[in-house]
Amino acid sequence: MHRRELLTLGGLALAGLAGCLDNSGTSGDDQTETEPSTPTDTNTSTVIGTTTPTETNTETPTETTTIGESSQLSVSIERLQPAVVEMGTPDSLTVTGGEETQYLYLWIEVAAGKAPARDDLTFRLGGERHALRPSEHTLGLWRAYNHSEKCYDAERGSGWVLFELPDLDDASDPTLVWPGGEWQPGADIRQRLSSQAPSLSVEWSAPDTVTVGDQPPIEFTVTNESDRPGRFVAALNRTGGGIVSMPVAGISKSIPAGETVSWSLTDTYDIRAPGGDEQIGDGEPDMTYNLALIGDRLEQDIRIVAG
User: Fold this and answer.
1) What is the pTM of this model?
2) How far is it, in rounded angstroms, from Cα 248 to Cα 236?
3) Most exposed of 102, 155, 214, 229 (fewest Cβ within 10 Å)?
């Protein structure tokens, strides 16, 4: 039997997180879908030099190559989202974001020429240029914590970059800029940068009881009733069951317009018997799963029973 909670979450709270995310049961931003290094969220455009892009409308986005004076970059959209999963403490995850921010992950490959430094990459939006999210913040990302080797740097010549952008009504002229070159995303992302994210409803469940040694499943069902794609972003933590506190999963799940998506993940850290004065089978909760969302936190208590 499962205990279920239903919550309707508006706007940016569920429209998305960005990143190269880990797909294991205990790490990364996305435990439920594979994250390729090519784009999954949007159409792309091809730019030669720094002139007007030729847009392509494809179901499967392709890489975008921009040729600048000193470097040729292949740029692809990983995702656009209103939040990111970060380490809130050394042993728990949190969700960072809000109604005034959005997060754009790009994947960059240097195809030819000199690789630009991280500090040379900026994103122009609404007439203003925005630098990469500061490295000291980036290192707090759950994604970076597990996959720092994939963060872009000039020596490597490839990797993901993250821009923390304002949420603007007029997101005109969105452009990645570096010395001697620039690149623009396709029409879909340009529209989403200036559109309100859709509201999503989430229902989640965990077992009422577990036994020592179990690896409990946690199930999710998220519905997007709007006509725009959204992204469910959350951080799942656990307290009890033999540990004080630990991250279970960072979640980033694309929810297409008008669809309901269901999936499950597994807490792969075995349940242990409670210590101290706690007793198995006393009817009291022995552990708790905490689901962090933008502006909210949900809990589900679980009892450990004899096997």
Assistant:
1) 0.77
2) 5
3) 155
Q: Which two tokens stand for residue 85?
A: 């999963």
Measured distance CA(115)–CA(132) in Å, rounded: 16
Q: What is the pLDDT of residues 152-191, one digit of tens each?
A: 989 989 999 999 999 888 888 999 999 989 999 998 899 8
Question: Do residues 187 and 149 lie in contact, with contact meaning Cβ atoms separated by under 8 Å?
Answer: no
Residue 251 above 90 pLDDT? yes
The Cα 144–Cα 162 span in angstroms is: 11
Tell me what pLDDT residue 277 has. Answer: 57
41 to 140, 198, 230: CA distances (angstroms): 24, 15, 10
Residue closest to 234 by CA, chosen among 219, 217, 216, 252: 252
CA distances from 32 to 26, 49, 132, 212, 218 (A): 11, 38, 27, 25, 12
What's the residue count for the chain?
307
CATH class (in words) of the domain with range 2-8+198-305: mainly beta
Q: Say if residue 36's pLDDT is above 50.
A: no
CA distance linking residue 88 with residue 94, whole number of Å: 5
**Residues facing residue 93 across a β-bridge:** 87
Rounded CA separation 302/305 (Å): 10
Tell me if 130 sits within 8 A of 163, measured CB to CB. Answer: yes
Tell me the C-alpha distance between 269 and 11, whole Å.
33
Q: Where are the domains of the chain?
A: 2-8+198-305, 46-192
Torsion of CA 171, 173, 175, 178, to 10 degrees: -130
The domain defined by 46-192 carries CATH number 2.30.30: no
How far, in Å, CA of 95 to CA of 135, rounded?
18
